[in-house]
Amino acid sequence: MTDAPHHNATDPQRAPEPAEGPAGATRRSVIATLGVAALGLAATQAAAATPRSADRPAPPLAAACVLTPEQTEGPYYLDLERVRKDITEGKAGVPLTLRVTVIDSTTCATLPNTAVDIWHCDAVGIYSGYVAGGSTPDTTFLRGVQLTDASGVAEFTTVYPGWYVGRALHIHVKTHAGGTVSNGTYHGGHVSHTGQLYFPETYNTRVAALSPYRNNTAARTLNARDGIYRNGGSATLLTLTQTGSDLSKGVTGTVVLGIDPRATP
Prior knowledge:
Distance between the termini: 26 Å
Number of strands: 8
Number of helices: 2
Strand content: 25-35%
Radius of gyration: 17 Å
Largest sheet: 4 strands, mixed
Structural class: mainly beta
Strand order of the largest sheet: 4-1-8-7
Order of helices and strands: HEEEEEEHEE
């Protein structure tokens, strides 16, 4: 994997992690959350052998009742905790409706009122909140929090992410438990999961040919060549369903996260 030049700063207690951001970006927060949670051997083999796609429905919750692997938080997390469903802020791209179901990995019960916190780059590989490309430190696009409903589902309106050097297409995700919402912001509680969500390569290739993604000049890294994806990413490969016959009209992505709501970093 290719390291971006600005990722030389690392946590002194851990080895350098793979590239996790677009070239030229300046970190506003120091993040270091690496780790892989345990998965049952059978579940790991099944996820690796039969990745989910638009042609294969998502597994029932009982089948997904294993602890989802933790993955690196990366350098671009901002604890804005803004509760909002639509996080696009006018960013162009293929519309994406993202539905994240959160379950308790020890009981298989769905977890209502769990905060799902996501962030990702835009079509040309830029994160909001950092000096990079056309972005500024004061932007907040493609970041937001939603609480799961009575069925354990949190839904977001966003756009299909782009890519940058060294990383496959992905969305970062955290879950928070025990907090409250006031004035449109999530407060308190604790982080119970940190991970990343991925996209089937068949869709990535088709999306890359569309505007504005085709303006992205960075080399695209495939899932199979992304070291972070290889470390448990197949467990969070989104199931995608296209909206109508025209891909540019949008897709719906679903995933199930098995977490321990009592866990803390």
